[in-house]
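User: I'm writing a tutorial on reading structure tokens. Could you give me a worked example: one chain, its sequence, then its tokens, then a sentence or two explaining what the tokens reveal?
Assistant: Sure. Here is the example chain.
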Amino acid sequence: MSPGTNTRFFTKTAPCSIVSIWFLLPVFCFSGRAQQSPPKNPEVIGALVADVAAPPKWKKLMPQDPLEGLRFSTYVIGSYPEHTVELFVYTPEHPGKYPAVLCIHGGGWSQRQIESDRPMMERLAKRGFVTALVSYRISGEAKYPAALNDCKAAVRYLRAHAAGLHINPERIGVMGGSAGGHLSGLTALTSGKSEFEGDGVERETDSSVQACIVMAASQDLVEANFLKTNPSALAFFGSTCAQSPDLYRSASPLTHIRKGVPPVLFIEGEKDSLKVGRKEAMDKLAEAGVETGLRTLKFAPHPFWMSDPWCAETVEIAAAFFGKHLGGVQPVIPD
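And here are its predicted structure tokens:
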């Protein structure tokens, strides 16, 4: 776990970043007192540089199978000619009924990156959640809204089979990063809108979620893609934004913000840039009376949640956020 994790979720703007501090340095350097000689002690200078400029080393993570204290299961939730949609579930072996969190993987809507997200969900499961990952249909297999329909089907499956999976069916959240962050926001913010359900399993079961985390993902696809030819978006939607602006607008999480949607927490890396429409989404959520917040991880690149130290920080933040909105939980497996 990352030391000193801040659990203040519901501020609309992020704290001043190191980037903004560097922008101000030239101004300070020409002020009277700033022209004083810097410290001559090399150790002091080295410590200052290390504290400000040295990012942590990237540590790639791999799934930890077998993982003591967790049961890992696979369920088929959709069979299509182009792909068999599976749901991978971590369940704490300790008896109880747990809140659940569905993870939607990234990969530009075109690559399946479930293995890269599994370490994060293993760690979150150890904190007292049932966690799941869905292998939705990617762009080379089916065009939008197939991916969203599969994510909705995954939520419905978790709720419909809550008893066997040791889930509290009234307490289900969703999270994802990059393309998965777009889909997690869209899954959450279209809760209650039947036109986005598709024809997947458990069609009569509610697919709404009670909390959402969006990591490093644009929320306004029109603003992000208008007058551009984004190959990933073109493959996913089958047309450009200029050709189908209404489709891109409908697929933008920002479009569906209204009173009663679940709380949304945004997590971003300081070095990431995939955030078009995030501020506007936060403004709309606040105007609708929906809790929202932003956490920016220092030095973190895209995709920060796949490696340490940022995966550890992300799990700490997610456990606190989902613990607040899905019910108080306690770690069931020591770290």
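What the tokens reveal: Residues 1-40, 42-52 have pLDDT under 50 and may be disordered. The two ends are 8 Å apart (CA to CA).
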